[in-house]
Specification:
Blueprint: E1 2-5, E2 9-15, E3 20-24, E4 27-29, E5 36-42, E6 46-56, E7 61-70
Parallel strand pairs: 1-7
Antiparallel strand pairs: 2-5, 3-4, 3-6, 6-7
Length: 71
């Protein structure tokens, strides 16, 4: 999904079902006690791809890609 924004930063928020290591654009995000996270990402002008990676305790990895266009 692509979204057009005018801001230069965006807060990426999410929640996982179980405890995991979460990375947002290669920066570690801290989980709270409800397994929710929030990470602010700077946006450059044009297309910005943000990769969210979750690694569970068993080592399974899940990736999600978000695309934002800053005008």
């Amino acid at each position: 999904t692509e979204e057009i924004l005018t801001e230069n930063r965006i807060a990426i928020k999410g929640k996982v079902d179980e405890e995991a290591e979460i990375y947002v654009s290669d920066k570690i995000a801290i989980l709270d006690d409800e397994n929710a996270f929030s990470q602010t990402v700077n946006l450059t002008e044009g297309e910005n791809k943000i990769i969210i990676k979750a690694i569970d305790k068993a080592g399974n990895e899940t990736l999600e890609e978000l695309i934002f266009t800053r005008s």
